[in-house]
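Troubleshooting log. The previous structure file for this entry was overwritten by mistake, so regenerating from the original sequence record. Sequence copied from the archived sheet and checked twice against the printout by T.R.
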Amino acid sequence: MRNSAFTSAMVVVLVVSAVAGAAGAVTAQNTDQAASVSFSGGTSGGSTVVVDEVHVPDGGFVTIHDASLANGDVLGSVVGTSAYLEAGTHENVTVELTDEIDTGTFHAMAHRDTDGDRAYTFVSSNGEADGPYTVDGEIVMENAAVTASATVEATDQPTEGSSVVVDRVELSEGGFVTIHDSSLADGAVLESIRGTSDYLEAGVHEDVRVRLDDELENDDSLFAMAHRDTDDDETYDFPATEGEEDGPYVDGGDEIVMDGSDAELDDEARAAFSAQASGGNTVVVDEVYLPDGGFVTMHDSSIGDGAVFESIRGTSDYLEPGIHRNVVVELDDPLSDDDSLFAMAHRDTNANGTYDFPATGGEEDGPYTTDSGDIVMDDGAVTVSASVAFDGQSTDGTTVTVDRVDVSEGGFVTIHDASLAGGAVFDSVRGTSDYLEPGVHEDVLVELDEPIRDTHQLLAMPHTDLDDDMTYDFVETEGTDDGPYVDGDGEIVMTGATARVTASVETADQETDGETVVVEDVTLHDGGFVTVHDSSLADGAVLESIRGTSDYLEPGTHAEVEIALDDPLTEDDTVLAMAHRDTNGNETYDFPATEGGEDVPYVAAGSPVMSPAELTVASDDGTDGSDVDGDDGMEDEAMSDDGMEDENTDGDDGMDVGEMNDDGEMNDDGTTDDDTPGFGVVLAIVALLAAALVARRQ
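Regenerated output below.
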């Protein structure tokens, strides 16, 4: 429904209040208390770490640093940061990790938000922004042992006996989740196995369905156990090898990582459907349990008038027996007006996996009923507006992908950063999609107006096209046009996700003598290199396309990085500047020498982090070849290829490479004499750390 009644002021108030409400409650608001951190460590599945408690009197973040912090690696030690924390005390703060971790000592450190943008930019700013809280001259932090292993969460649920769903599995190295029955408690390690998931990659997996090879015949207590893939064959070999391979993950106390739950055999279906906003083309059913499999069908309110078939708006794909969560149902007959919809559980009576209820006049695939004969269904009010799904993702900082947008009257999906919650309604806009026609759009790529160089908490917000010009005018008109879609309660339709950034590269088209390439900006959270590949990379020449590589770059941001080409270019070409890790920590680029075994590229969204640039190779007379007669009014010997007089090419320009200028500012490449980004700030932090770490060892 178009929000034509919005004024600019109303939009601002609405957006700010909506985001503030979504931010969640803080357990205490005593901002006079000094900053503090409580961190007990424990077991991590490799993707998250939980900090017990953090107090940030002025707001900020809690950041996880690895053990390299003790060696002075202030920037490169950062492996994850929380979302922005409002001023106050926060308990059980989950920190998403951007780097893989090994078992060891980690430091939970309270950081300020010095620039007030609610985004943690400590690393990309080379330590200039969002530094740590200090109390009496000491950094506020606490260290603890963290075991990189696995975590599992399972809840009580109904089952028809052939499958169960594990709520969440987090694996540090990939593997499986296996369901054991209660005989495990009697020592029947192998005999208790009822079923195992497919192979799961390292990372977080939610609502993992496990089909039971040995079906349940009675209610039972089950154990969801995380198992490794010790032989790397992506096949569960634990029982076949009698426990020699693919054993369970264990925590820091050598206890098996598992979670117990009760499974109740239940032959009565159930459905849960909440009120929601929709573009009128899709709805999401919260949960449906189908003991014999089947479908969930959406009926509109005319079913109350007896329109059994005419009320059908859409049906899910076939759902196998068991419990299903967050089922997206596409509406074949879209809604144009707000209505109450009924999510109805239907059988697959002819077992063909196709919904035949309307085609057979109700003879096949009728609804599930309760023991008392009532149809199994649940209703919810649907506001015709918009809906959006936006999952966490890795990115190179230039784009993000919105999973699904459903807009009733067309419009856009806009990406806002976390400063929106602080009232920056317009300044928080980081990018907007192209115009979207009314309907459902999947995998919508949004180019960011300015790259992000650190992990950010972003919000995907569907916007109207109020003035029907297919151009996003919200910012330009200060909220008068193209305001956000709202739900039935007048709340902004939006959802948040984490955009994880570990590296970003920016290049620009340039003219070159063929000997060098300049990369405008490169941010490497773990340090490394930036390598120039020529266009043959697109043909698969991964190693042969390498033309040159930078010196080792410390963690942080580096500007105007000049790369000498070992294999100079002789003609115009499209080159790609690619960010590479220093995987073996020797500060030498070993990617080609090891045939890709070491110093691999930084990766985001499954692809290397890189940036293309068109290079124009100048001719010997310093031109790009367009003035081939050399009649440019200048003698060749008077100027070098870069336009500087030859007698000053020895570097005698008053500054040596790596030198700081008279104002104490960093050079254009973001380095100081020590070749470390922001060395002055970081050195000060190192000094504080030294004192803090010594104190903790005593």
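The radius of gyration is 29 Å. Archived copy saved in two places this time.
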